[in-house]
Design brief:
Strand order of the largest sheet of chain B: 1-2
Strand content of chain A: 15-25%
Radius of gyration of chain B: 23 Å
Largest interface: A-B, 78 and 69 residues
Strand content of chain B: under 5%
Structural class of chain A: alpha+beta
Order of helices and strands of chain B: HHHHHHHEEHHHHHHEEHHHHHH
Structural class of chain B: mainly alpha
Helix content of chain B: 55-70%
Oligomer: heterodimer
Number of helices of chain A: 25
Shape of chain A: elongated
Number of strands of chain A: 21
Helix content of chain A: 40-55%
Distance between the termini of chain A: 47 Å
Largest sheet of chain A: 8 strands, antiparallel
Distance between the termini of chain B: 25 Å
Radius of gyration of chain A: 34 Å
Number of strands of chain B: 4
Chain lengths: 688, 559
């Protein structure tokens, strides 16, 4: 079903792109691309020559000039088509987004509180600083920050993810996006942007490529391509005087014709990469969007390929979201089963994933069945920031579990003490990357529950891949250094930052940057904003605060921190595609020389016919075949330009070698085969 | 077989010698703390000679200005010496005034380290002109090249201050060129080269005629001519003249002297940037091109002379036309390639008489101009190809391209592209103009493709600052003198200014860190990339011209 839909979408994009290809023939558009502009001028010139030939004053047979002219125009149209295809995919996406921006009515509040008087106004009249109310069933009228209330919101219009998310005031889940829908409860929202500047507007602008600016590398490449064009212009333009000399000197033949010169020029200048260059850039942005990442600029996408340090949050990226109990380690003289029993009792009412895992471990290890805490007549003592313990009071028994120092304080209050054996266990557990929870009953310490972070499956291999790509991974965690070191070793990251504070993160980024590295990170909280602003590639989670999104240069709509790796790959792929097609384009020239030079000088120096290594049928078919190949190769490479060349996570040396073989050597050989085949086809169709 | 052994001994021996010389040149041009107090004392002397000019540390712009001013002064002084030679001393043979356009051409030629000679030294230049104008320029123009390379390398090593030109040029002259020239000149003396300030010898021949035999301070002149990739001979026929190249041994020393300093320049570059392995890769790439061209030349020169093909002449030894039989046929292609691969331009045979495809090899050398290239400047030219190669290769490994830990961006690409463009322009466009005007056509001694090759060769030689002539061309005319003079000057200084600008621009950037994802410039893959870039970008530009010159001539007569 999905493929049918996308096929349908593709058909529509293709139809639209064909129309666009003709509209882009406007010289004002063409002049922005120097390589294609030269083709444009050449085509115009041969068009005049065609007319002249049909009027009976042609420098060559009219049919020949006409065929060359047509294929030159096709070359431009194909390049336009490539660009239009790349834009089309973005446009289709923008249209879909635009549909979500219906003219909604906003419930504007006179004062920034729930009870204030409501005035119904059209959403576009809202200004920064206004306060609005959004209730279940309402579309949120504008981007803003929740200042009151908690609600579930469907953000599928933006993210494509239909599972509702929670939005609430304060903290890191306070940002809401215009066009999303409140499913339950209500929110009071302070509008943070003016009309036309909303996230949705920005996204539409970005995916449409309306504000697309050339990226630094694209500019540099354009300069190189323009210079190569001028060099080949020199090489072909000087052929006219050279051939005049040759005709004079050999006393036979005709000087080279303008049509053939234009054909040779167009074949030699890098039209393949020149025609596909903007398509590659747009497609790179588009691939980000496919990955549900909105980059605020093409520059950011390019920078992603250069990243060599990734800062990854431990929780959610490297480890599963929560820790799990893996062992009960009793104190001296305590039955392990008694420890398990006490631990289970203390955790029965603890609904945190850690608490659940204690109950499950006691059951699987000591067959202790789960008991109903209310039937036991027990009272649950919840975790507080002051006590930093939780537990249960049951028939005069007081069982507590918590961090070693919290429990130690508690037993000391009751004239007990923390046995040295337990202290050793606590340290051992911490050293192995676990979290020790000490269990005590009254003044007696029973033992330790070992909680452990569960490192995600396959993540170690992923980091090894990154290392081969030359990218360092740094794990960011609030854990202490001992625990962090153990998890870092287990996950195979290169470095870690323990007890991370926003300041420490910022310092780490600055240090790495001072060492010449480019740093990428993800963040969602307001306190991440300084670090995000400092990082070279900063991916803000869509679930994060407005401040985080402002500070970053990309927004991940899925709020998936692992995506950083994908973003780096997309950036690399973008540059690789440019490099590969440049190499291919230039390598092509060798074969074109061998097709055109002997044909161009056949009347002056018939001996040059020996350079016709492809044994092309006739001089005119040789020139025409080269021009046709040059035009068709653009079409043939459009899919590659849009999809990007295949990226494999290996070191630079191997990548270069592979690409050099495929696109360099391939680019050298392909046109020999292609031009020969086209020539054979022309002969078969009696066109030449 | 013996020919191949000889070639390998010359090239291999030079390569081996270049290693310690490169180390010495680093010590001479860019001494660090380990160089010792004696070395520092020398620098203090150089600085005091340059006076206030010698004390400042120059950024790339000021370095450039100093280099240009120095060269303009040298140009003017030499111009004056030559224009006034008939009034000045040391003129035993009473040479007359030299024609204006020829003075311009000659001074441009020697200032630009080209030494294209539209004159015959023994017939028109006084000893004072030869020594104080021409030989002096042979030293300082080569020193300019070494200084420019040292400055560029310092920039690439990340130093924004690139040194002081006035000190560098003295270092290059007094510490590098002068001592080596002294050694080589002494070897030449033992080999029988004349070294005298007496005028021409007058001898009575057996037939009772008077013969005037030109001589002069030849050994000193030839040493720096060979070492400084100058190439301007004391005598018109250059090293084919017995006084300028008397024996097999002087011939061998001459060839080593051609390639030695260009080879050592690469090692000096590597040592200044602190990346000797990278220099090794560049050296290897240059060597591959050099050996390919030598092999090609040797191969094609084994075919007999086409002009004698129908005559009953034994030609088993290959083409012997225009060769000095004292040295044997095999050394000729080697010399022809060495002298054009570097921007030397001295000749050991008449290039006009080479077989057509053999004649293509020197042209390729001059078109690339970087497969060892001129003293100092060869490596600078190669740097332009390296910038292009790292740019394209950098993209192919998925990163913003960088070279020696600094990013290559629009500005660097712009300068590199203009440098390449200028080289192509200076060869192709003037050749086109001369091909269709009497300026060129009326001066040819050969018609057809060979005549075309003569013009193409002349401008290639001027643009590459090579100075060898294809000969067969009546090139001492006002149009040729002016046109090649302008080409030589522009083609000398544009490819020094722009690469220095690139180095300055790179030095100003924040260095990036190296990782497994960074493009390596010290491995075989990079060497392959560099070779491909040079072949495709450098050689493709000239393919049409080559097809209409040597290639068609070969196909017409040799197949």
């Amino acid at each position: 079903m999905k493929t049918n839909l996308s096929a349908l979408r593709d058909t529509r994009i293709i139809q639209r792109a064909i129309g666009e290809s003709f509209r882009k023939l406007d010289p004002r558009h063409q002049i922005r691309n120097p390589v294609m502009f030269v083709v444009f001028v050449g085509s115009a010139l041969t068009t005049v020559l065609t007319v002249q030939a049909f009027a009976g004053h042609g420098e060559a047979p009219a049919g020949f000039i006409l065929s060359i002219t047509l294929w030159l125009w096709f070359t431009i149209l194909f390049a336009n088509f490539a660009e239009a295809m790349a834009e089309g995919r973005g446009k289709a996406q923008a249209d879909a987004l635009r549909k979500t921006r219906k003219d909604v009515l906003a419930k504007k509040l006179k004062e920034p509180k729930r009870e204030a008087e409501v005035e119904t106004v059209p959403a576009p009249t809202l200004r920064k600083g206004d306060t609005v109310l959004a209730e279940a069933g309402d579309l949120i009228p504008a981007d803003g920050e929740v200042i009151e209330g908690v609600a579930s919101v469907n953000e599928s219009a933006i993210t494509g993810e239909s599972a509702p998310v929670i939005r609430e005031s304060g903290g890191d889940r306070s940002a809401v996006t215009g066009g999303t829908k409140v499913l339950s409860d209500w929110l009071v929202i302070r509008v943070t942007v003016n009309p036309g500047e909303t996230f949705l507007d920005r996204m539409i602008g970005l995916v449409e490529g309306a504000k697309r600016q050339k990226t630094p590398n694209e500019i540099a490449l354009s300069i190189l391509l323009a210079s190569l064009t001028i060099i080949f212009l020199l090489a072909t333009a000087t052929l006219l005087p050279y051939s005049l000399y040759a005709v004079n000197a050999s006393g036979q033949g005709q000087p080279i014709g303008i049509t053939v010169l234009v054909a040779l020029l167009v074949c030699l200048i890098p039209t393949t990469i020149g025609g596909l260059l903007s398509a590659i850039g747009i497609a790179g942005m588009d691939r980000m969007i496919q990955a549900n990442v909105i980059a605020t600029s093409g520059r950011a996408v390019e920078a992603a390929g250069d990243v060599d340090v990734l800062l990854l949050d431990k929780t959610g990226t490297i480890t599963l979201g929560n820790r799990q109990a893996v062992a009960f380690l009793p104190a001296d003289g305590v039955d392990p089963k008694a420890l398990a029993d006490a631990a289970q009792l203390a955790s029965l009412a603890d609904e945190t994933p850690e608490g659940r895992s204690v109950v499950v471990l006691a059951k699987t290890k000591y067959s202790l069945r789960e008991r109903d805490i209310s039937k036991l007549g027990a009272t649950f003592v919840p975790f507080t920031a002051q006590t930093r313990m939780s537990g249960v009071n049951l028939n005069g028994r007081t069982i507590r579990k918590g961090s070693a120092d919290a429990v130690e304080r508690w037993v000391k209050e009751q004239a007990g003490s923390l046995p040295s054996k337990v202290r050793t266990i606590v340290e051992d557990v911490a050293r192995q990357g676990g979290t020790p929870l000490v269990v005590a009953e009254g003044a007696k310490v029973l033992g330790v529950i070992q909680l452990k972070d569960i490192v995600k499956g396959g993540i170690k291999e992923r980091f090894a891949e990154l290392r081969r790509m030359g990218i360092q991974t740094v794990m960011i965690t609030g854990d202490n250094a001992l625990t962090a070191a153990a998890i870092a070793a287990e996950a195979g990251v290169d470095d870690y930052l323990a007890e991370a504070t926003p300041e420490a993160k910022l310092k780490l980024i600055r240090e790495r940057q001072a060492g010449g590295r480019l740093v990428a990170m993800t963040g969602d909280g307001t306190n991440d904003a300084p670090a995000l602003a400092q990082a070279d590639v900063a991916v803000a989670m869509n679930s994060g605060t407005q401040a985080a999104k402002e500070a970053g240069n990309m927004v991940d709509l899925d709020s998936n921190p692992t995506k950083l790796i994908e973003i780096v790959e997309i950036g690399k792929q973008l540059l690789m595609t440019r490099g590969a097609l440049t190499t291919f384009s230039i390598s092509n020239d060798v074969a074109k020389y061998f097709a055109i030079i002997p044909a161009a000088f056949v009347t002056v120096y018939p001996e040059l016919g020996r350079l016709n290594v492809m044994h092309l049928a006739a001089p005119q078919s040789a020139v025409l075949s080269a021009v046709i190949f040059n035009a068709l190769i653009i079409v043939a490479l459009i899919p590659l330009a849009l999809k990007g060349v295949k990226y494999r996570p290996v070191g630079a040396g191997e990548l270069l070698w592979n690409n050099l073989l495929i696109y360099g050597l391939g680019g050298l050989i392909a046109p020999f085969v292609g031009i020969k085949l086209i020539d054979m086809a022309l002969v078969a169709c009696r066109l030449a | 077989m013996t020919a191949m052994v000889f070639i390998l001994l010359i090239v291999g021996g030079s390569a081996l010698l270049s290693w310690p010389l490169g180390r010495y040149m680093k010590w001479a041009m860019d001494p660090d703390e380990t160089a010792g107090p004696g070395r520092q004392k020398l620098d203090r002397i150089f600085a005091s000679i340059a006076g206030t000019l010698g004390t400042e540390q120059q950024g790339w712009k000021r370095y450039m200005v100093a280099l240009l001013i120095f060269n303009i002064v040298m140009f003017t002084v030499s111009f004056a010496f030559m224009a006034l030679q008939q009034h000045l001393p040391l003129n035993p043979d009473e040479m007359k005034a030299v024609e204006g356009s020829l003075i311009f051409n000659t001074v441009a030629s020697f200032t630009s380290n080209t030494n294209l000679q539209h004159y015959s030294g023994e017939a028109s230049m006084s000893y004072l002109t030869q020594l104080c104008s021409l030989m002096w320029l042979q030293f300082v123009s080569a020193a300019t090249g070494v200084a420019a390379l040292a400055a560029m390398a310092r920039g690439l090593a990340g130093r924004k201050m690139m040194g002081n030109f006035f000190v560098d040029v003295q270092r290059a002259t007094f510490l590098v060129l002068l001592p080596i020239s002294f050694v080589v000149a002494t070897l030449f003396l033992f080999g029988g080269m004349p070294m005298t300030l007496q005028g021409s010898a007058h001898a009575a021949t057996l037939e009772g005629l008077q013969q005037i035999i030109a001589r002069g301070p030849v050994a000193a002149f030839v040493a720096i001519k060979q070492l400084g990739t100058n190439g301007g001979g004391f005598f018109g026929p250059n090293c084919t003249q017995p006084f300028e190249n008397p024996t097999f041994w002087t011939n061998a020393v001459c060839m080593v002297a051609i390639i030695l300093i260009p080879m050592a320049s690469v090692w000096m570059f590597g040592r200044i940037i602190g990346r000797v392995r990278h220099a090794g890769v560049v050296f290897a790439v240059m060597l591959v091109f050099l050996l390919a061209k030598i092999s090609g030349a040797v191969w094609f020169e084994q075919a007999p002379t086409q002009a004698f093909a129908s005559l009953p002449i034994e030609q088993a030894t290959g083409n012997l036309e225009g060769k000095e039989l004292r040295f044997g046929a095999a050394t000729v292609p080697l010399w022809a390639v060495l002298t054009t691969s570097t921007s030397n331009g001295s000749v050991g045979a008449m290039h006009d008489s080479l077989n057509p495809m053999t004649g293509l090899m020197p042209m390729i050398g001059m078109w690339l101009n970087a497969t060892f290239g001129g003293v100092g400047v060869g490596m600078i030219n190669m740097f332009i190809y390296i910038i292009l190669a790292v740019f394209i290769a950098g993209m192919m490994v998925g990163r913003t391209p960088e070279y020696l830990n600094r990013r290559v961006e629009a500005r660097e690409i712009k300068f590199a592209a203009v440098t390449l463009l200028a080289h192509a322009f200076f060869i192709l466009v003037p050749t086109a103009v001369f091909a269709v005007t009497p300026w060129g056509a009326a001066t040819l001694n050969n018609v057809g493709p060979h005549g075309f090759s003569e013009m193409l060769y002349e401008f290639s030689s001027a643009a590459a600052n090579n100075g060898s002539g294809f000969e067969g061309l009546g090139d001492n005319t006002v149009p040729w003198n002016i046109a090649t003079g302008i080409v030589m000057l522009l083609a000398r200084f544009i490819p020094i200014i722009l690469p220095l600008a690139i180095a300055g621009s790179l030095a100003a950037k924040k260095p990036t860190a190296q990782s497994a994802g960074t493009l390596g410039v010290e491995d075989v893959t990079f060497a392959a990339m560099l070779i491909a870039t040079i072949l495709v970008v450098g050689a493709l530009t000239f393919f049409p011209a080559a097809a209409l010159g040597p290639i068609v001539e070969h196909l017409k007569f040799m197949v």
